[in-house]
Fold each of these.
Amino acid sequence: MAPPAAPPPAAAPEFAQKCDGCGACVPVCAETILHIAESKAQVDFARGECTFCNDCVEACDRGALSAAALKAWGGRPAVAQNCLGASGVICRACGDACGASAIRFAVSVAGAPPQIDLSACNGCGACVAPCPVGAISVRVQEVCA
């Protein structure tokens, strides 16, 4: 399982400096994916996906979350070796959950692991929760303000 991450609208290092764990962003998250841990807001995509609604940005009066960082969110899914497809099992749970249609499967290979089109992926994390073996995590590749 992936370590907790800063919410998508977090701009590093501003987030680390400005987030004091006040929790104002948590109750406004309609997807209930935000929580406070280690004195910082964190996202848990195992709870659901980010809809990029901007409510957490509006609730954050510390400036730790920003609309600019939300647009530049660099989170992308990574598939671990325990993926059922890598074991020859046909599973399409992550692809079915992907509203951006960024996850594809080889048609000619039964039980192939998913292929992620990073140019189509928005990093919402919708693919994480439905994975029956927890093989998908969202990792931040680059977040800039």
Amino acid sequence: MTEETKRYLKIHPIQLTSIEVLELFIRKNVSFDKDINMNKQDVIISHGQSEYDEENNTVHVGIKLEYGMEEEPETPFSMRVELVGNFQVDEKRFKKHHVADWAKRNAHVILYPFLREHAFGLTLRCDLPPVILPLVVVPTFTVEKPEGPKESEE
């Protein structure tokens, strides 16, 4: 990254260092006789995180997409995508007691574009209409300073 870029982009104290693909699964439902039109309301996306590893300054966050995974799905296809992101924390710039809250609120949003790409690619490669998951609003994580004593009005 150039010095000019660094002036405009502030590097966050928690960085994604790697992404592991745990599962990529897709199966066409050949008995499905309706138009292949995925109802995005039926997509289940879940996430979770590990405890903060103080020795290695890391936290691991998983995100999973499931669609049509019932025993006898009434969907044109079934799909499951599961990823784990590994994050490195700079404790000099980010207090470790805030890591769990950051991971719970923010880390899965960082992994979401990777989940979207895998869902898109899997469906496209299986000659299904490509799944484009909706964009999401990115939450912000801020640490609020406690208010000091108020000055009395005289």
Amino acid sequence: MSEEETKNAAPQQDVAQSFEIRKIYVKDVSFESPNSPVIFTDGQWKPETNVQIKGSNNELEKGLYEVVLTLTVTVKQNDKTAFLIENQQAGIFAINGYPDESLQGILGAYCMEALFPYAREALDSLVIKGGFPPLMLNAIDFNALYQQQLQAGQAAPVGQDAQH
């Protein structure tokens, strides 16, 4: 390039893409066993399990986000609540250089997938300490859930809650 072409060249405006997990932590946790100790003597263990998933995110500062995965599990035995457990597993993520639509997918799917193993372990540990058999939650395809929300027009923008 000649000196004149170099002077007239537009400055590079591409921002490098980066993703970093800064912190993963339990934001809130609750365990209730309203029918104990009777529930432990209520016949053979054949639980009915209901799992609800909720995700939210909040931009703390430019490029820094808190993402919260809330899992609520209700387990019933013979129509009685054996236990109700809720865990808000959170993380702080530094995310820069992505277009808005990609950022939404990262927050709504990828960050949730990063948080899920921690949430699953926290729930399982509390359930065992509560005297119940291990809670074996199956893996969740957060990308598929996020895509379903997009198609239904329910995907939450940055800083809002999303129901999975």
